Amino acid sequence: MKDSHEGIISEAKGLSDAGYGQIGAKGTTPDGLKATIDKPKFEIDKQKNVANQSKNRILKVYIDANETEDDDERALVKSLIELYGDAETTDIN
């Protein structure tokens, strides 16, 4: 899903930005990786919600189990490159 700056995603983000709720995200990358960012705890106090929403949160990326630690490390590196890097300039094989 993408935020088109109008519609339900934009409205949910606006409510969260104003302190009326919390948002998180989960999805699947084009290469099939599953990733999530949990939403923070909801508070009745809007200012606490705004503060909690602005704190750093953990990006969780799920990879399939591999036979060796080296294969696990390769899968992790590939996932980080897919999410943040440029595979064209990185040799991980």
Overview of this protein structure:
The chain is of the alpha+beta class and 93 residues long. The chain has one domain (8-89). The chain is built from three helices and three strands, in the order H-E-E-H-E-H. It has helices at 8-17, 46-54, 69-84, and strands at residues 25-28, 34-37, 59-62. The chain has a three-stranded antiparallel sheet, with no helix packed on it. The longest helix has 16 residues, at 69-84. It is elongated, with a radius of gyration of 17 Å. The two termini are 32 Å apart. The model has no long low-confidence stretch (mean pLDDT 84).
Overall pLDDT, averaged? 84
What is the CA-atom radius of gyration, in angstroms? 17 Å
Strand content bin: 5-15%
Head-to-tail CA distance between termini: 32 Å
Placed side by side, the strands forming the largest sheet appear as: 1-2-3
Q: Largest beta sheet, briefly?
A: 3 strands, antiparallel
Summed up, the domain count is: 1
Helix content: 25-40%
**What structural class do you assign from the helix and strand content?**
alpha+beta
Number of helices: 3
Query: How would you spell out the order of helices and strands?
Result: HEEHEH
Anisotropy-based shape:
elongated
> Count the strands?
3
List low-confidence stretches.
none
